[in-house]
Amino acid sequence: MQKRIAGKKVVITGASSGIGARIAWHVAEAGGVPILLARRREKLAEIANALTGESYVYACDIADVQAIQETFRIIIQEHGTIDALINNAGFGMFETVYDMDMKHFRAMFDVNVLGLIQCVKEVLPSMMERREGHIVHIASQAGKMATPKSAGYASTKHAVLGFTNALRMELKPHHVHVTAVNLGPVRTNFFDTADPQGTYQQSVERYMLDPDKVAERVVKHLFTSKREINMPGWMELGAKVYQLMPGVMEKVLGKQFARK
After folding, report:
1. Measured between alpha carbons, how far is 126 from 258 in angstroms, rounded to an integer?
2. Which residues share a beta bridge with 58?
């Protein structure tokens, strides 16, 4: 793994906490060069200072298309090539469609989908020209199996998976790898926004993934042809069964689905 990653420049969005911060740590440990993006420059600098080797930070709001374009312009100007892009930035809000304000739907799509796509657009020309690179999208099991109060969030992740699958096929002739990472609930500050009352968080506490183990798995598969990383395995199995028998799953697990 270290031979694959050593010296590689890896852009990580949403790197100021949680999975993104742990991915940066594992990239650095493997000898790579993490390039950290998030809105909070001070937090990014704090994380970068704790890493081994080279690392760089850039403040960027992934909801702002012009900010993304300018940030990547500077990164490419200062570092030359970007070897990997890990689109980790994203957030969710758990409310019913009736209760959720349209501005919250738009905000999730701006970051989770449109911001992600814009970041991809910035790295594609160089990767396609060099015929190498890796794009990783931190998606969600919600993109395969939606539940009540997740209509907004799940629809963004459905969009991410559709985009990722098409992108993978488009880039295969150019030898650029594309990986989707589909996760169940992870023990991060995601739930501060998604579930401020803590109801859902309490109901899934025992199932929560460790962000460090997620990050380790992602970095382990950098610069390989891994199509998907699905965690936890039992939830991925449930998603497959759901695709085959959605009505049965909704009837059997209806109460569990509604715990938000």
Report:
1. 45
2. 37
Q: Are the C-beta atoms of 222 and 10 separated by less than 8 Å?
A: yes
Residue 197 has a pLDDT of 73
Beta-strand (E) ranges in 52-211? 56-59, 84-87, 134-138, 177-183
**pLDDT for 43-81, tens place per residue?**
999 999 999 999 999 999 999 999 999 999 999 999 999
Cβ atoms within 10 Å of 100's Cβ, excluding its own? 17
Return the structure tokens found at 73. 């312009």
Give 256's pLDDT tier (boundaries 50, 70, 90): low
Mapping DSSP to helix (H, G, I), strand (E, B) and coil, where does residue 35 land? strand
pLDDT at 224: 97
Q: Respond yes or no: is residue 58 known to be catalytic.
A: no
Name the architecture of domain 2-257: 3-Layer(aba) Sandwich (3.40)
Residue 239, helix vs strand vs coil: helix
136 forms beta bridges with: 86, 179
Instruction: Read off the pLDDT of residues 183-225 as tens digits, 9 standing for 90 and up.
Output: 999 988 887 786 677 666 776 677 789 999 999 999 999 999 9
Q: Name the residue ranges covered by the structural domains of the chain.
A: 2-257
The fraction of the chain above a pLDDT of 90, given in percent, is: 78
The pLDDT assigned to 203 comes to 66
Measure Cα distances from 234 to 43, 125, 211, 238, 239 in Å.
Answer: 34, 38, 18, 6, 9
Between the alpha carbon of residue 56 and those of residues 10, 47, 75, 109, 144, the distances in Å are 10, 10, 9, 27, 34
Half-sphere exposure of 195 (CA within 13 A, CB side): 19
Catalytic residue among 153, 200, 207, 242: 153
Q: How many residues does the chain have?
A: 260
